[in-house]
Amino acid sequence: MNTNYRNDEFRDGAASQGQALGGGPTVERIGVTPDPLSKRAAEDQSIGGLLRQLGREIPSLLTKELALLKAEARESVRTAGEGVAAVSSGGAVMLAGLVMLLLAAVYALSNVLAPWAAALVVGALALLVGYMMVSAGRKKFSADELRPDRTINTLNKDKDAIGGRIP
Asked: Would you say the C-alpha torsion 140, 142, 148, 154 has a positive or negative sign?
């Protein structure tokens, strides 16, 4: 077994680097890293220090999560408001055009049917189409569309991380 050692002059350093306790020259193995357990122990903080750090970081984490929730809520409300404005203004314009088209359909159908029957058929078709449109639009305002999914996801990740589970 060939182990390479070298003598160094006294220098400031840790005992894990091979410094002799008496302050004399050191003997250090070349190409071999210090013991990982002793190095890790020197770098790691105490359990109390880690708990203090956790105590300082949890309020910051909760503040950031709350800010994310507020941002998502603002975004959802803004999106819903834009949707309501677009549907309202578009609906008003379309209503005027629809009334004219329905009147034209009643006049055209009154050549084949009695005028009252033509108005009844056109009115029933308009109600059916309107119901289908309202049903489709109502889905956009469901609770699932307005739920802050990103915030819920990050809160679940945080809960798992604090609990010691790897996501």
From this structure: negative
